Amino acid sequence: MREVLDDLLQWWRAGESVGVGTVVGTFRSAPRPPGAAMLVGPDGTAVGSVSGGCVEGAVYERATQLRDGDGAAGLQRYGVSDDDAFTVGLTCGGIIDIFTEQVSRTTFPEFGELADSIRADEPVALATVIEGPAGSAGRHLVIWPDRTAGSVGSARADDAITDDARGLLAAGRTATLTYGPKGQRRGEGLQVFVSSFAPAPRMLVFGAIDFAAAVARMGSFLGYRVTVCDARPVFATGRRFPDADEVVVDWPHRYLQSQIDAGAIDPRTVICVLTHDPKFDVPVLALALPLDVAYVGAMGSRATHDDRIQRLQEAGVAEADLARLSSPIGLDLGARTPEETAISIAAEIIARRWDGGGRPLTETSGAIHREPVAAPIPLPVNRKGSARTA
């Protein structure tokens, strides 16, 4: 939704009705991820994208109907055979589930608060009923870490969804959740799509060296909020690291401790220690390795790695925590330049996130993507790409 937020907010504030189609589930190789959205504005303008091809046209028509008050919000599944895939836009024969609704001040009065939080980069989640008892589809519950707005129609369901959505929000994940009609966790009949708008995950780069500039550039490209930290002010400057969101002059371990104390480290955080100097990297790694973070990597030769492990053991770091250290940092790409090394580090971070093996895809078989962000919902499939409402 981020990519269409400004247009949707402008029309919402003007009191207009907008048709909105949102990807809520994918299977196999769909073009857009869950959360991608397309708008049909009051003048017929299309903003955003959910797929391309005939699927896009079908969603446009359905969103136009809902914008004009013709029909109720509902879930459609678009799926094609491999033979027909190219002509309808799902070029790998994928399946895509799209929820279409009307958004206006009447149908979604809480949208203004949601949009303000997203634009301010505040953590917030949107829970939308995409399938449920009659009349419930399209109800919204907006969830912040400390409050909620709206309702899905049941206080018990609101409470259950709020608890689960806050867990997803903390992890920066989007998912479809299933409950009983009144929010029973082991029930069926209520499908809720939770879209998390969490602040960008953090990348902490310790060591203001030439490789750090390339890593910061790559981290920014991948969507991280990048901090470069070094105790040497002559090297830690904004001019040397234009792609970093912030450059901090401090001892790495002291800065990391301040971020831990401030609650600014979460399970999505990645930490890259590039100093390969024991007086800098041992103290910060001793702090970093026990943390619940996505990745901790350290640069250095094989000899540097062996010496570093011994020093960390002497510092009391547990063997289980040492096993989490990616060192020497990066995947074996044969990288030599700072830019190539940054790509190898980014590749390892991505592989760690999605449990990838780092092997060429030509050497593997089976599904390319191991874990869908939001699982497809079991609906009948219309094989020619036309809409079918649940």
From TrEMBL:
Pfam families: XdhC_C, XdhC_CoxI. Residues 11-79, 118-180 form the XdhC- CoxI domain. This is XshC-Cox1 family protein. Residues 203-349 form the XdhC Rossmann domain. InterPro entries: MoCofactor_Util/Proc, XdhC_CoxI, XdhC_Rossmann_dom. It comes from the Bacteria. It comes from Nakamurella alba.
